[in-house]
Structure formats: C-alpha cells, structure tokens
Input
Amino acid sequence: MSASVPLEPAHVVAVIGAATSGSEIARILAERRATVIVFEQNPRPYGKIEDGLPRWHVKQRRDEYEEINKRLEHPNIHYVPLTRMGRDIDFAELRDAWGLSAVVLTNGAWRDRPFPVEGADNYVDRGLVYQNPLIYWFNHYPEATYDGPRYELRPGTTVVGGGLASIDVVKVLQIEMTLQALKRRGIEEDMLKLEREGLAPVLKTHGLEYANLDVAPCRLFYRRRVLDMPLSDIAPDAPAKRAEAMRQARAKILDKAQRKFLFEFQELSVPTGLVVEGDRMVGVMMSRTEAADGKVRTIPDSAKPVRAPMTISSIGSIPEPIPGIPQRGEVYQYVDAAVGLLMEGRTGIYAAGNVLTGKGNIKDSLVSGTEIGIHVAERYLGLSGDGSGVPFTDAKREEAHLEGLRMAASINAREPVGGAQVAEIMKRVRERQQAVGYAGDYRGWIKKVTPPDLQ
Ligand SMILES: Cc1cc2nc3c(=O)[nH]c(=O)nc-3n(C[C@H](O)[C@H](O)[C@H](O)COP(=O)(O)OP(=O)(O)OC[C@H]3O[C@@H](n4cnc5c(N)ncnc54)[C@H](O)[C@@H]3O)c2cc1C
Output
C-alpha cells in the first residue's frame, strides 16, 4: 500500500492515464521493483472501457474493470486519481523538477478529430455533436447521480464516419429512438435485448414494424467505398486473394449491422459545407467522391444539401495536445515510435496504448502496454522480472515478454533515483493524494467513487 514507501534508491516512474495500457505498464514496472506513480484525471481508472466501449458490452466491461483493478493494486503502485496532467500537474515540471526515472504517457486518444468543414465547431451542440461526448453520455446517463451533458436524439440524424465506433454510434441512435418510440406507446423495452436480437424481432413481439414507428432512420455517410471501411484489419502484406476476401467481409459486417439496426448507409460521400439556419447547423453540404489507388478525390460541383436535426461526427479520435510534448500534425512526434520514445534526457518520456498505436482497440492497447512496459523496465531502467508476475494469456504478449528478457541481458542499467529524491517525490505524491481525498487504500477508494448503478 502507499504507506510502505521505501526511502531506498529506486527507479521511480510516472504513468499518465490509468486504464488498459497504463495499468499494464504500471504492473510490469511494479513487479520489477520500480516505484510507480499513476496519475489519472478521473476518479476511476477505466478510461475508454468505461466511457467509450458502449454499455451493452456488460460482461466485457466488468471483466476489464477487474483486470485493471488487479494490476493497479500492486503495493509498489501509488494511484493518484483526479489529477490531470496539463491542469493539476505541469508536464515540464514533472519532467524537469521531480527527478523521475521516466514518464510514460498512456493518456489515450480523447480529442475528436475536427469535423472537416471550416466553421463547423461554431455549431457544437447546436446541430453538431462529436462522438466522444455522445458515447460518454450514453454510457452514463442511466446513473442516478449523472450530471454531465445530455443529448436529445432526433430521428433522421446524419452520422459521418466509417469505422467500428461509427457503427456503434448508429446503433446507439437506432436503439434509443426505438426505445423512445415504444415508450410513447406505453411499452418499456430492454436496451440489451434490442442490441442482442436486433430491432425487427423485438418490435415483432409487440406486433410492430419499424416502418410504423414514424422514426426516420439515421444515415451513415462514408467517404470511401464500403469495401474500404476499416471494420476489419487487413495486414499490409496480405496476399491479394486474402485481402479481397477481407474487403468482402467488411461489406458483410456492414450489411449485417444494417439488417439488425435498420439504418441507412451512403458510401463515397464527404461533407464539404454547412447548412445553417439562424444560430443552428441544420445539415451539411455533402459532395460525392471517387476512390482509386487508396486515394479519395472529391468530385467538383457535386455538393447537395443533406438536412438533419443533428449531425454526429465520428471520424476518429486523436491524442490531446500537451504543452511541452512535440506534435507532428494530429499526433505526438516520436524520437523512436517503435519503442514509444518521445523525448530523451535525464527523465525519458515514453508513450504507449491508443496514444501511440492510433488503434482504438483494447487488445492493441494491452499489447502496446506490455511491449513498452517491458522495454522501459528492462532495456531503459535495467530492471528484470522476478518471475512472480501475472502469467500472460496470449501469445503476442508472451512474445513481447520474451523479447524484453532478451533485451535485459544486454543492457546497461540507469542509476536509480537516490533515496533522498525518492522521499521528495513521495512527499509530492502524498500531498496530491491528500488534496484529492485518496488515503492509499486502492480498493476502498474504488468502492467509494463507483456509483452503485455504474454499468
Ligand atoms: C464507441 C467505442 C467503441 C469501442 N469498441 C471497442 C470494441 O468493441 N473492442 C475493442 O477492443 N475496443 C473498442 N474500443 C476502443 C477501446 O475501448 C480503446 O481503444 C482502449 O480501451 C484504449 O485503452 P488505452 O489504455 O490505450 O486508453 P484509454 O482507455 O483512453 O485510457 C487513457 C486514460 O488516460 C486518462 N487521461 C487522459 N488524459 C489525461 C491527462 N492529461 N492526465 C491524466 N489522465 C489522463 C483517461 O482518463 C483514461 O483513463 C471502442 C472505443 C469507442 C470510443
């Protein structure tokens, strides 16, 4: 627990963001006897598992919460909740004044990529809604104590996107609109049942059809062909036949989702203008595109108005800029992206998980956490495992672990932080923990800050 702080020399690493990748890195370092401080902006450490992965993934979310808890309760890990880097802690100060061995950024990708029409952001929440806050609302609004922004979903909404998350957005819309339509008829239905079985079969049990609900379906627009939708990964070295089969699989995934959730889809379309009335955005000008050789070209003079009471932008999430971290375009600039190295120096700065991979999935964040965690622990700090860690459950992570052990055999360890400096660092940590009311009992804290009706 946080009380048993060694004042012996130790490697001390700060991890920014406590979720899938952050908790994995913290565990790897802690098992190798580093002192790990995990800063998390929220009270709970679950990141996009809680606020992104839609709440119909009931069991998966609970299982992932517990995996994160198990990793973070290691006695060498000092959890510091309600602490946002860039607001409560200054990055330059953390890097230059704390005297840490390393900082690892596992802060995910929380900024929605800007809607690609100039001036659109003037209409946020006045016709334009971004995916991240919308899904946050969907995951949390049933909680009795929820006091965040609320969204009133409307029939005939436009969704601009194309990836898996945008399919989740149209599912949210179609399910919620159907629940509302049923409620207006005095029927209470179950969100989970609609998600599991699809709209038509559930409506049928009430003697209804979607067409009679008087709810215009939402429409998903994608700028490339359906076959290009990133709904399944195609390895860059996949043989042509296999790549084609995977592309056809994408069309099948979309078709299945459409049949189940009854939304409309339009490929080869890109927003190029806004339709504005008064102080509201009431639609977009949608242009046609041509896709060839992996490139998309907007066809001139093809724009037509697509009116909608709400337009949802679901075109990807990017890392939030942090003052002091060099940026290249939408992403951070790396010295060596293969090992997540952002900045060299006395305190090395690394990144892992979604912020590094750009891939929005749990497995990739976990594998990245394992790889970068082992690299930082064994190659950068010279800490080897004692074999007592949690066994890896999949081959890719086991492979990363073995690679780390091979690296460890050939490294020069960095000097640990001196005992007096460790005490200084821990004093700062304790002060911050006290300021946010965290007394050092991880499980006790989680119990205190978890609403009883969190899903
Ligand atoms: C709608 C949607 C559906 C999805 N569906 C799936 C799915 O079906 N399957 C799947 O595998 N994946 C899915 N994902 C993606 C998956 O949930 C994420 O990619 C993965 O959980 C990211 O893990 P991470 O640890 O890299 O980042 P995150 O979970 O984003 O963790 C980052 C952490 O850092 C914290 N943080 C951020 N900034 C700061 C700061 N400045 N200071 C301190 N703390 C900070 C955050 O609060 C968070 O706890 C989905 C995502 C979305 C949005």
Summary: The chain has two domains: 12-110+319-449, 118-317. The mean pLDDT is 92. The domain at 118-317 is CATH 3.50.50.60 (FAD/NAD(P)-binding domain). The CA atoms of residues 284 and 306 lie 5 Å apart.
